[in-house]
Amino acid sequence: MAEGIKDKVAIIGMGCTKFGERWDAGYSDLIIEAFKECLEDAGMEKNDIQAAWFGTCFDEQFCGKSAVPLSQTLKFPFIPATRVENFCATGSEALRGACYAVASGAYDIALALGVEKLKDTGYPGLPEFARLVGTEMRMVTPNFTAPGAFATLATRYFARYNLKPDEGKKILAMVSSKSHHNGAMNPKAHLRREITVEQVMSAPIIAWPLGLYDCCGVSDGSAAAIVVRSDMAKQFRPDPVYIKALQISVSSGIELMHSSYDGTHVESTAHAAAAAYKEAGVKNAREEVSMAEVHDCFSITELVTMEDLQFSPRGKAGDDVTAGRFNLDGAQPIQSDGGLKCFGHPIGASGLRMMYEVYKQVQGKAGPRQLKDVKLGVTHNLGGVPQTNICSVLIAGL
Question: Is this structure's pTM higher than 0.85?
Answer without folding.
Answer: yes
